[in-house]
Amino acid sequence: MTAVRIVHVVTRGDVGGAQTQVVELAAAQRGRGDIVTIVTGVDGPAMDRARASGVEVVVIAALGPSGRSPRSRRWGRGALPELRHTLRTLEPDIVHGHSSSAGLLARVAARLDGFRSVYTAHGWPFQRGAPWRQRIASYTGEWIGARFGHAVICLTEAERRRATRAGVSGRGRVWVVPNAVSDVEPSLRPPREARWPVRLIMVARFAPPKLQRQLIEVLCQLVDLDWTMEFVGDGPQLEATRQAATRLADRVTFSGHADDVAAHLAAGDVFVLWSAYEGMPISMLEAMRGGLCCVGSDLPGVRSLLGDPPAGLIAGETAALASALRTSIEDAALRRQLGERARARYESTFSVSAMEAATRQVYDSVLRR
Questions:
Q1: DSSP per residue over 1-49, as a string?
Q2: Are residues 295 and 283 in contact, defined by beta-carbon separation less than 8 angstroms?
């Protein structure tokens, strides 16, 4: 099979859902013989993993986030000409952009120099739950980007329908390719025995759209139960959340950034994802891989992961979240059942090989045009 020259473009190379998917996909493509490069604005642990798998990494600092108006600053600081120069040097068959800002730049740069482009929307930032200024800026960028790119990949069917209704992709050019993560060793998905205190864990950056401070408020209603809570991640809202948690004394810990997320999950009992909006959350997929009972926001991406009937508990507002957490803490048999169901769904639906094969179909369609 002929090797394809692929360039992925992503804003950051540190830890995050989009970065994880980019590295998983790039490594799988490299493994099948393709020539793969990742272009990023910020180097970091995710890019180290990419290099370890044989994927080339190019850092263009102007692509990285900066200031209050990241997208306009990127264009003004020369990100577009630098990216165009890099693409002309690499001469890719496919330019694959990820997330809003990098996705727009990738599509514009590719079109200006005659390259084919694909864009993966890791969630639509213009949807309900996002700040209104972000919604306006995001929608404008997505609408423009759709006119430059050749195909859009959504993570769920609900996200595909949203894209079609919003007019941010052309008819017949919208594909659904779910996220995926590589499996872990059996030691990192141990049997979930009944134990107390029940260990709750949330793995997420302390920044919108995540709602760790709301989760703290909910946990304050559950002090009659026997539990601990671990937050893994860093970000601009970490200190404010830490201050809000002082009422919970030694029940809550903040572990900061972690490269060994699977090990943290292996020590937990219940995974919690409380967020205003998501595409298809990698952190929950990692928890499902580890066989944890999952509790999450009632969002299309969460429902798509957990399936029907859901392999976890879903809450639409804080009162429902409090009820779901109380149930998961009190009922050890349910925790184990939902954890086993989540692991089985991961095995059947979210393999990296399936993600790579589905993405290849998108590329083939674009290259045939």
A1: ----EEEEEEEE-SSSHHHHHHHHHHHHHHHTT-EEEEEEEE--HHHHH
A2: no
Q: How far apart (Å, rounded) are the C-alpha atoms in residues 55 and 7?
A: 10
114-159: per-residue pLDDT in tens? Answer: 999 999 998 787 766 667 777 788 888 889 998 999 999 999 888 8
Give yes or no for residue 67 having a pLDDT over 90.
no
Domains of the chain: 5-180+351-368 (3.40.50.2000), 186-349 (3.40.50.2000)
Q: CA distances (Å), 101 to each of 138, 196, 309, 326, 348, in order?
A: 8, 44, 35, 39, 33
CA distance 146 to 155: 17
**Kind of pairing, strands 270-273 and 252-256?**
unpaired
Of 58, 4, 1, 60, the residue nearest 30 (C-alpha)? 4
Tokens encoding 184 = 């872990």
Q: Is 292 left (phi over 0), alpha (psi -120 to 50) or beta?
A: beta
Q: For residue 324, what are the contacts with CB-CB under 8 A and spacing of at least 6?
A: 295, 313, 314, 315
- Give me the phi and psi of 34, to 5 degrees please: -75, 160
Separation between Cα atoms, residue 26 and residue 24, nearest integer Å: 6
